[in-house]
Predict the 3D structure of the following.
Amino acid sequence: MQPSRAPSSIANESKAPTKEAEAQTDGKTEDSDLALLEIVLSKGGEGGSRNQFEGPGHFDLTNLTPVGLLHNALDIPESRISSPPDLLTKRYNLHVNAPQLDQNLFNQAVETAIAAGVGIHIKHHVAQTQSYVLTAKPEAKSHFSGSSSGFAVYQPKIQTLTCRSASATKIAAALEQILGIPIVNETSLEGQATSSFKLVPKDLASTNEALGKELGLTLVLAERPIDTLTLAR
């Protein structure tokens, strides 16, 4: 399978071509640091999976399933993605470099590249759902800073949430795994947080206590429109 590249014109739908855009021949400029849109999807190989985040809109994902690609590239919780069993055994690599792209266009371009490269349809369904809303206390701003891009991951065996340069959106996705209910980020926080602390699965009271102490965040029960994805051949 040839690597799937999203067309560079996606990045320029709403503005006149720039020098960098005119220089593009395969979705990237001569200087990759100035790339407006560079997306490459290829088959995975031997070995384990690996995620490398260089900054906002710039990362490499290695040996992940289509569900894993959508989760890590677009911060979609895996619990919101339904997939045929055979796709869970397929592994792919995804390289993305689009630091200047509008977030909505970025999401559309990455999703389109994954769907086209893997050969699947991605269907969205939105419904009002009981959720937890992640909000920020005044002191939360002191915990979030910088512009690097990292991760938030929960380790069930040791019941620990580890955040390394993680945005509030990534933290919300990890919390969804822990609590088993959709989490919606409404903190409006910019920057990233780094912390590591214990969380008991499906225990809102202790989770709120730990979130408040470590990051200045809190969860409130409410109904919100939740977008779920179905992957189909």
Q: What stands out?
A: Residues 4-119 form one domain. The longest strand covers residues 121-136.
